[in-house]
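Our consortium's second objective concerns turning raw sequence data into structural hypotheses that experimental partners can test. To show how far this objective has progressed, the report includes one record in full. It was chosen at random from the queue rather than selected for favorable results. The single chain below, 168 residues long, was entered without modification.
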Amino acid sequence: MNRLVKMIGCLLLAFGLHAQSNIELYPTSWFVGMKWNKVQVIVRNKEQAFSNATIRLNYPGVQLTKVHVLENKKYLALDLLISPTAKPGKINIQFASADSAVTIAWELKPRRNGMGKTYAQGVSAKDFIYLLMPDRFSNGDPSNDQIAGYTDKVVNRKDPIKRHGGYG
């Protein structure tokens, strides 16, 4: 009898692990201390519709504010509110139906030192070139320096005001 109980327990554990591998969360993780503390997690069940599931999570500083049932019944959207006091760790999100329950871990990661300012400096004016318009080119073909109809016939590369040659 003891052996039968162990075998059934192993089968249930294997079934639970198999069921967990069929559920995906996007984004796969988030960060504590973010300025925007509302996150929507998309949940996808590859195998079956689970839109009638009851969702629970119990993690200090993280609150499930709303569950959106989407048109495709294999997807849910979970609105999470992450408080500034939340600590990094694994949040266990439980999906329970009438006959089973599956728990998926979703990671809340620490932010980088410097709140991201030491890793990425952000974008500034020195990162952009608004307009680049060359007005001088290398004179690759001196035979086309004199152009019929041009009033400026002088080609002088040493004078910044004069034409430097070329057509164009």
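The partners drew two points from this record. Confidence is low (pLDDT under 50) at residues 9-20. The first helix runs from residue 2 to 21. Both points have been shared with the crystallography group to help prioritize constructs.
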